[in-house]
Automatic annotation (TrEMBL):
The lineage of its organism: Eukaryota, Viridiplantae, Streptophyta, Embryophyta, Tracheophyta. Pfam families: BRO1. InterPro entries: BRO1_dom (IPR004328), BRO1_sf (IPR038499), BROX (IPR038898). CDD domains: BRO1_Alix_like. Belongs to the BROX family. It comes from the Eukaryota. Residues 24-448 form the BRO1 domain. This is BRO1 domain-containing protein. PANTHER family: BRO1 DOMAIN-CONTAINING PROTEIN BROX, ENDOSOMAL TARGETING BRO1-LIKE DOMAIN-CONTAINING PROTEIN.
Length: 448
């Protein structure tokens, strides 16, 4: 642990981040004395391993701000087999340990540092601002709090897999933002885009596993009190969003491929639009006063408008291949709609970037870099070419409907690893002592 501390203690200078793949929130475990809590219930060497790896995750997450993605995912994968034994009903340990997690972000750090420097002598005011709750008898789950405390091992499993999903989204984002990228231009290689698609499918698989396999195991009263960003509909929204962005990357690859037909490009644009619509639908009844969800909704609106502009653009190109005057008129309607949607998407992008926490406006890249140039050019050209049709029809007719397609991308299937062999070895056994005796032992030890 000492080595880990020396490696990760130095933090990078904080800058306004640039977002291509949006990971709404990252939670990290808080340091805890699991050896004491597990004493007498599991062998000491197993308790030490569980505590050590969990505290390592907490340390690395805290000291790097979550930027050590590969190291954190590796540590979480090592922690899972150890954690799984606590979820086994036959061991009776599901509600023994109290697990604490907190949001990772600058807001809490800034608030604490200011309060300590100005009001460190006034505990009462400090507690008012930080909402310190000294009563730890009950599970503490509150949307307004950045810390969560729950005595349930399935909740711990939910948090671990959720963290793996968010880290995977962050890793996909890193793939799409080259270190040498400028503020005005971004060049992303095809290999990086393909790698990002794989990561997005993996993240969607983690989230689906949370919704289908973990949340149903939590007591109903606990599920109803989970933070809004860990509710099933929000997790589903992030999964759909990941699939939408995977499809967006596929469209970007198709745009630069000589073998991709207009039909393929239109299909990808329409599928992308459907995924974003599903994600937005999942959040339609959520409270927009929540800062995290508000930022996510702004992101979805922005990307939905971009996807719709792309879909109408490629639909217009296909309609224009028809021989009837009505086909050309419909094509003009579609490309003008795409141009208007493109303008609105730029406004939505700015709104997203200015929403808390502030992020940088990304330069055009991928499919949108191509479309931001082609849509206005094509709209001007087609309007001029078919002016006579517009005059004959006395304006534009109703906008044609976009075709619907079966969605191609599916989340990866995620399965939990096997429990650590230490949970099933022959010498393993639990002492016959009650929880009261276990706690009494701790109380006597603390007094001595």
């Amino acid at each position: 642990m000492g080595c880990t501390n020396s490696v990760y203690k130095k933090k990078k200078k904080k800058i306004v981040p640039e977002i291509s793949i949006f990971a709404p929130i990252l939670r990290i475990p808080m340091h805890s004395d699991l050896q004491r809590l597990l004493r007498g219930f599991v062998p000491s060497d197993l308790a030490d391993r569980i505590a050590a790896i969990r505290n390592q995750i907490a340390l690395v997450g805290e000291d790097t701000g979550g930027s050590a993605v590969s190291d954190l995912i590796r540590a979480l994968e090592q922690y899972l087999p150890l954690l799984l034994g606590l979820t086994k009903k036959e061991y009776g340990l599901q509600e023994l340990v109290e697990f604490r997690w907190r949001e990772l972000g600058e807001e809490r750090e800034v608030r604490i540092s200011k309060l300590i420097s100005i009001l460190f002598s006034s505990r009462k005011i400090l507690e008012l601002f930080l909402r310190v709750d000294d009563n730890d008898d009950d599970d503490d789950v509150d949307d307004d709090e950045q810390e969560i405390c729950v005595s349930n091992s399935w909740f711990e499993l939910l948090c671990v897999v959720h963290m793996m999903a968010m880290l995977t989204l962050m890793e996909a984002n890193e793939k799409l933002i080259p270190k040498e990228s400028s503020l005005s231009e971004r060049l992303v290689s095809a290999d990086c885009m393909r790698d990002a698609v794989d990561l997005l499918l993996k993240a969607a698989g983690y989230l689906n596993f949370c919704v289908l396999d973990v949340l149903p195991r939590l007591p109903q009263d606990l599920k109803s009190r989970l933070p809004s960003d860990m509710q099933d509909n929000v997790l589903e929204a992030i999964s759909h969003q990941a699939l939408a962005q995977g499809t967006e990357l596929q469209l970007g690859l198709a745009v630069h491929s000589k073998n991709a037909t207009l039909s393929v490009k239109r299909r990808l644009a329409c599928e992308q639009l459907s995924f974003y619509a599903q994600a937005h639908c999942c959040l339609s009844d959520k409270n927009e006063s929540n800062a995290v969800l508000k930022k996510q909704l702004f992101f979805l609106k922005w990307k939905h408008l971009e996807a719709k502009a792309a879909a109408y653009y490629y639909h217009s190109l296909i309609l224009d291949k028809g021989t009837e005057p009505s086909c050309h008129l419909s094509a003009v309607c579609c490309v003008l709609a795409a141009e208007e949607l493109l303008v609105e998407s730029k406004k939505a992008c700015l709104t997203f970037c200015l929403a808390d926490p502030i992020t940088r406006c990304p330069p055009p890249w991928g499919a949108m870099k191509h479309l931001q140039k082609k849509i206005p050019e094509t709209a001007a050209k087609k309007t001029q070419m078919y002016t006579y049709l517009l005059d004959q029809e006395k304006g534009l007719k109703s906008l044609p409907e976009l075709p619907e397609f079966q969605l191609s991308l599916k989340p990866d299937e995620y399965e939990l690893p096997e429990a650590d062999p230490a949970w099933g070895c022959g010498k393993f056994g639990f002492p016959e002592q009650t929880l009261k005796k276990h706690l009494d032992h701790d109380e006597k030890e603390s007094k001595s």
